[in-house]
Design brief:
Layout (H helix, E strand, L loop, with lengths): L1 E6 L7 H14 L6 E6 L17 E5 L7 H7 L4 E4 L14 E5 L3 H4 L7 H17 L2 E4 L2 H11 L7 E2 L17 H4 L7 E4 L8 H8 L10 E4 L19 H11 L7 E3 L5 H9 L3 E4 L9 H8 L4 E4 L2 H7 L7 E3 L4 H13 L1 H10 L8 H19 L6
Parallel strand pairs: 1-2, 1-4, 2-3, 4-5, 5-6, 6-7, 8-9, 8-11, 9-10, 11-12, 12-13
Length: 390
């Protein structure tokens, strides 16, 4: 089989890129995969994030033009199926081949941003429906996302294939030493939230809660992820990134002190992610919405680090196979987040011991996930050409 992975639009620099960097080589390792050609936007700098030495059947092409252009068609001509890895943003186009997409989450429809017009929401809904209605097969990352697709787009979404991928994304989690450069910027003890600053990631309620947390001096909040460094800006030098000025204003109102009670680090290189998590007092995940779960939460539990987590359906689904006790809270309530912070700190020995006991909980591998994807691709191929009844 010869597979085209089309990703000429920019993907998430966090979970999206981490998923793709693990899924691509795992797919290439499967039997009878002659070629996987990844077409990806050069802005992602994806070639710098992945080592494909030894994978002669992987071809990575930097391109951000149209799939219907002459160059795009040339890249497609020797492939059997097209996998649209990140359909969030562009509109569906018919390429005359079996097509599969992973619909990662419905956040844009479930948590509509302030000041977003009805016509903008309608455009997002129509673009999503174009994919749902026209691709050969839709893949989702959780039963929760499948249920949301059914709610937004009707009964046909019951046909979506669930392939969970909430497993440890790093090839190894043995390195626990933080680089000297980063270590010099960190407090000795810290609570960690690894995430970009999209509104649904809920930094606002987390900051409101943390400003009231009695141990914020002894255990400051460390943030890392795309654009978190912009929280260091001050008026009148507002960063021209939506929602970030709102967070900066809130940071000032709460009185949280930079580099004393809160440390916004910005984007952290892959090699420092595991050490940052491994050395944390705890990892907190206050997001209002996720698609398939949380890689940082998965990594924390694999490292024996306690977790405080939003009590939302997808995280309950994700963490149901873990034995560690999770400190749950209502993410829409700063009081609930504060209570969870205080409860964990008062019962830290219990949560730490439970997390350590759960280190060896069973988990799927990336090859297990890749096998499910390849099977889905083959079924889509047969379905498209009429060799399999839909």
């Amino acid at each position: 089989m010869r597979i085209m992975i089309w990703c000429a639009n920019v993907i998430s620099a966090g979970g999206g890129a981490r998923l793709l960097s693990n899924l691509l080589p795992a797919m290439a390792r499967q039997p009878d995969i002659d070629l996987i050609r990844l077409v990806i936007a050069p802005e992602t700098r994806f070639k710098e994030r992945i080592d494909i030495a030894g994978y002669s059947n992987i071809d990575i092409v930097y391109f951000n033009g149209s799939i219907q252009s002459k160059e795009g068609r040339a890249l497609l001509q020797d492939c059997h199926v097209v996998y649209f890895f990140w359909p969030h943003g562009p509109e569906f186009v018919d390429v005359g081949l079996p097509t599969i997409c992973t619909y990662h989450d419905t956040t844009i429809l479930d948590f509509i941003l302030p000041f977003m017009s009805g016509s903008s929401v309608q455009h997002c809904w129509r673009a999503a429906k174009g994919w749902i209605d026209n691709v050969t097969t839709v893949v989702v990352s959780s039963e929760h996302v499948k249920s949301r697709l059914v709610d937004h787009f009707g009964p046909p979404s019951h046909e979506a294939v669930v392939i969970a991928h909430a497993i440890v994304p790093a090839a190894t989690i043995t390195n626990r030493t933080i680089s000297e450069t980063l270590s010099a910027r960190l407090p000795a003890t810290y609570m960690l939230y690894p995430s970009n600053v999209s509104p649904h990631k809920n930094h606002a309620n987390l900051m409101l809660a943390y400003a009231q947390f009695k141990l914020r001096h002894e255990c400051p909040l460390v943030l890392f992820g795309y654009n978190t460094e912009l929280l260091r800006y001050q008026a009148p030098n507002w960063p021209d990134i939506p929602f970030v000025p709102t967070l900066i204003s809130l940071l000032k109102r709460t009185g949280l002190q930079l580099d004393k009670e809160i440390y916004p680090l910005g984007f952290v290189p892959d090699h420092d992610v595991i050490p940052l998590i491994a050395n944390a007092y705890a990892v907190i995940m206050p997001s209002l919405s996720e698609g398939g779960g949380s890689y940082p939460v998965e990594e924390a539990l694999k490292l024996g680090v306690p977790v405080l987590c939003s009590d939302i359906p997808v995280m309950r689904e994700h963490l149901s196979r873990h034995s560690a006790d999770i400190c749950w809270f209502n993410p829409e309530s700063p009081d609930s987040i504060l209570h969870a912070l205080e409860h964990l700190s008062s019962h830290y020995t219990h949560y730490k011991s439970a997390a350590m006991r759960g280190i060896h909980d069973p988990s799927e591998t990336w090859d297990d996930v890749a096998i499910k994807y390849i099977h889905t691709f083959r079924i889509a191929y047969l379905k498209y050409y009429g060799a399999l009844q839909s």
